[in-house]
Design goal:
single chain, alpha/beta, Rossmann fold, 2 domains, eleven-stranded mixed sheet, globular
């Protein structure tokens, strides 16, 4: 069961859409939103930026500007959160709702330092983390996504550009017999049990009866779920592109393992995960 959902408040115009997506996920479970804003550590940032210059006066002036920017961003983030709660009729509280309550709630948190580190610290105790996908230009979002995926052991849901559907009625599982994929399926069970259609999808050259995909589908049927298998022949563009093209307009959520091994940014995710994060036209649920 999902009862706590962590989401970052960045103080940018994208916050409202991220909060809306997180609430759409939380409401079916009457889950609580933990909304975290991380303020910049102006002193440490200024020292790092001016260490080569060796100018105390330069550092002091930079600290003042950074602190002003940080205050303005925190104010904007809080205002967006407050407006969102009012518009969604969402109570802001730190107290758990009474047992049996059908209402979601939200809570505002503020920390100082680095967003990826604090999101990981909060995320390790959350049931689900909603993370922005991040583009090539949004390096902070991508760094946060990488950190929470690798350091928390918790599931992450990455919204698509389109509005989040009210429910995930059609779920696709990108399956390969790995621990990461198995954990993703286990963590996704709160969504899978509510789905009307579940497709265990593989991309492989040759279809074989009694495969790992068939065994997973069979296991899901023992849970009373309507699961089938679907095998896609890999195209010249590669397995990930074949999978995403095959799911276009046919699924509301993609469940998959997040594969990666190195903490170097260039190779933190494998090619399959990289393409899914960059190009998936639907929300992606993944674990590492």
């Amino acid at each position: 069961m999902i009862k706590t959902v962590l989401v970052a408040a960045t103080g940018t115009d994208s916050d409202a859409a991220t909060f809306t997506a997180a609430l759409a996920i939380a409401r079916p479970f009457a889950a609580h939103l933990d909304v975290l804003h991380v303020k910049l550590d102006a002193v440490n940032t200024a020292v790092a930026m001016t260490s080569d210059a060796g100018s105390g006066a330069l550092a002091a002036g930079l600290i003042e500007r950074l602190e002003q920017d940080s205050r303005e961003r925190e104010t904007k983030a809080r205002e967006i959160f407050t407006r969102f709660c009012a518009g969604a009729n969402l109570a802001a509280t730190s107290a758990p709702a009474p047992r049996g309550s059908a209402a979601s709630t939200a809570q505002w948190h503020v920390e100082t330092g680095e967003e990826p580190r604090w999101m990981a610290a909060y995320g390790i105790a959350a049931d689900l983390i909603v993370a922005r996908r991040g583009t090539g230009e949004d390096m902070l979002a991508r760094s946060t996504l990488e950190t929470v995926l690798l350091d928390t052991g918790r599931p992450i849901l990455i919204p698509a550009a389109a509005a989040m559907p009210e429910s995930f009625e059609r779920i696709a599982i990108a399956w390969k017999p790995t621990p990461q994929a198995a954990r993703a399926v286990a963590f996704a069970m709160p969504f899978l049990t509510r789905a009307k259609q579940i497709a265990v999808v593989t991309v492989e050259e040759k279809a074989e009866e009694g495969s790992d995909a068939d065994r997973l589908a069979r296991n899901l049927t023992w849970h009373g779920l309507a699961a089938t298998t679907e095998r896609l022949a890999p195209g010249p563009e590669g397995a990930a592109a074949t999978l995403l093209a095959g799911l276009e307009g046919r699924a509301d959520l993609l469940v998959m393992g997040g594969y990666g091994h190195s903490r170097l940014r260039e190779s933190v995710f494998g090619g399959f995960t990289q393409l899914a994060l960059a190009s998936a036209p639907l929300p992606v649920f993944l674990t590492h």
